[in-house]
Amino acid sequence: MKVTFENFEDGHKKHYHKNFDIAERSKKISYFNEDNDTIIHIETPVVSEDFHVKKVFNISTKHYKAIVIHISDKSINPSRDSDKNKIMKIDFNFDEIDDTNGAEALNIEKKDNIYVVVFNDNDEMTTSYINDKVFIILKDIMVSNLKFKEKAIRKDNGKKNLDFLFVDPLEGGGGVIVRNP
């Protein structure tokens, strides 16, 4: 896994509303590429370079492909609504993703979308924690009928927003990524 940072510039503002968001999939800023060792590339705004990736989890079902990227800056302070100062760039291979209990295999085809949840929390996340806090909620939110799949996630100003998944003082953001052309 490789993590780098760059400064958050004015040009980034149009792509990200809050920290931990993923730019709209049509922009292909974050993407997967199954041709070169199945790489996933994620870019998300954060407060500082203190953030690191703790783990990446597969929470896919037969109806949707989804991953949770667990990050932390070891701070107890919420960051979702703070200033966006850095872009965190995360590159990892599919074999670096841990399966949660009950997750479907993350077999990706060119036409697929991957739902990405960027989850900021200091706790150590286990597969049972993911199942309790995220996986069950996502199963209730995502629907099997393809026609309604996109409508199942709340939309804010036409942008995908997954922050409603998090109760408690935990926080997250996310979006949807597609294959890089």
Characterization of the model:
By secondary structure, the protein is mainly β. It has one domain. Helix content is about 10%, strand content about 35%. The protein has a nine-stranded mixed β-sheet with strand order 1-6-3-2-11-8-5-4-7, with no helix packed on it. A hairpin with a 5-residue loop joins β2 and β3. The longest helix has 15 residues. The radius of gyration is 15 Å and the shape is globular. The protein starts with a strand and ends with a strand. The relative contact order is 0.26. About 15% of the residues have low confidence.
Task: Outline the secondary-structure elements.
Blueprint (H helix, E strand, L loop, with lengths): L1 E6 L23 E3 L5 E8 L5 E7 L7 E7 L13 E8 L4 E2 L14 E7 L6 H15 L4 H4 L5 E2 L2 E2 L10 E9 L2
Parallel strand pairs: 2-11, 4-7, 5-8
Antiparallel strand pairs: 1-6, 2-3, 3-6, 4-5, 8-11, 9-10
Number of strands: 11
What's the helical proportion of residues?
10-25%
The H/E string reads EEEEEEEEHHEEE
Number of domains: 1
Percent range for β-strand residues: 25-35%
Question: Whole-Å distance between the termini?
Answer: 22 Å
Q: Biggest sheet: strands side by side, in what order?
A: 1-6-3-2-11-8-5-4-7
Structural class, by secondary structure, is mainly beta
Largest sheet: 9 strands, mixed
The radius of gyration over CA amounts to 15 Å
